[in-house]
Amino acid sequence: MSRTLGYAAQVANGKLEPWEFERREVRPNDIAIDIEFAGICHSDIHQVREEWGTAQFPMVPGHEIVGTVTAVGSDVTKFKVGDIAGIGCFVDSCGECEYCVAGNDHWCLDNSAYTYNGMERDGVTPTYGGYSKQIVVKADYALHIPANLDRAGAAPLLCAGVTTFSPLRHWNAGPGKKVAVMGLGGLGHMAVKIAVAMGADVTVMSHSESKRDDALGMGAHNFVVTSDKEALKKLANTFDIIINTVSADIELRRYIGTLRQWGSLVVVGAPSSPYSIDGGILMGRQLSLSGSNIGSIKETQEMLDFCGEHNIVSDIEIISAAKINEAYERVVNSDVRYRFVIDTATI
Ligand code: NAP
Ligand code: ZN
Hints:
Elements: E1 2-9, E2 16-23, E3 30-39, H1 42-48, E4 65-72, E5 84-87, E6 90-92, H2 98-101, E7 113-114, E8 134-138, E9 142-144, H3 151-154, H4 160-170, E10 178-182, H5 186-198, E11 201-206, H6 212-217, E12 222-225, H7 229-234, E13 239-244, H8 253-256, E14 259-267, H9 280-283, E15 288-291, H10 297-310, E16 316-319, H11 324-332, E17 339-343
Parallel strand pairs: 10-11, 10-13, 11-12, 13-14, 14-15, 16-17
Antiparallel strand pairs: 1-2, 3-4, 3-8, 3-17, 4-5, 5-9, 6-7
The structure holds NADP nicotinamide-adenine-dinucleotide phosphate and zinc ion (ZN).
NADP nicotinamide-adenine-dinucleotide phosphate (NAP) binds at residues 41-43, 46, 159-160, 163, 183-188, 206-208, 211, 245-248, 250, 268-271, 292-294, 331, 334, 336.
């Protein structure tokens, strides 16, 4: 065991404050990473505030992690000391269930280990995330960060990047496809950049008029303020894919009408209340309401390589650890342009 420093919430809804805790010794399959940057995902806030149900405390959030490998276990060939490595939302899975075998380890049927607010697969050891100076993980669950990408800007790719890349690819975003992105926050702005790079025609649906220029600057072809009912109506029967990244309770029926035949509205935003939806609205053009959760380790590496090829990183504001609580408030108020990233040297 080795001592490390992090920022933790000691209780539900508690402020994030400095905390010293243990990381395990490096096992034969493990690597140790000196964390440099950790993104703040809205999911961190939902969990600290128990908006998704009972959570585990003390909690060290953070699942958008980039740092330098400082030690490798005796069986590790994937990394060497000095490599730049990333960690996303999960750090273990069973490796044996139908989904793990098929390469969809993020859907593991048997107790996959989330990066924080979870347990290791032994079921008793809590996991602690990236708002900390060091982490020890199985090498197979760490990712290679393309050398041309800015390390701080690459951190949000580990969750926001793959969570939007995965459904965009699954629902075939590309040339000739019209994609709408609901909500221009951490996930939403990654969805825009990735969908544009895939060759799709991209519209942003935002409740913040002030984000128009940024959206167009990211390559979006169109921007609609969702309070403008007429503008939404004009988009009826338009989109093949809608990626809904909104973190708050909203009425989905207003958006579903903008789908064209066989289109799908993919939910990735995870507000605490259920959506209310009248099934009839899906029937007319064989529309789908669907969902998507992060991405597999394989897919996360594919997303990182894609971002490397297209020079895509997140638009970030780097903060010191002491500003985490303030940053949480700004995220909740949709006042993030477009991801806060903690410089963990300040912990
Ligand atoms: P974020 O940066 O806070 O972005 C959410 C965006 O939603 C805001 O920027 C805002 O965009 C819009 N929004 C917020 N409040 C709204 C309101 N009252 N009415 C309408 N729009 C509102 O959050 P994020 O980190 O991108 O995460 C987004 C959601 O995805 C969270 O619920 C998070 O937990 C979830 N998530 C899911 C997965 C998954 O695997 N499925 C992974 C990561 C995160 P505009 O200002 O442009 O309207
Ligand atoms: Zn996340």
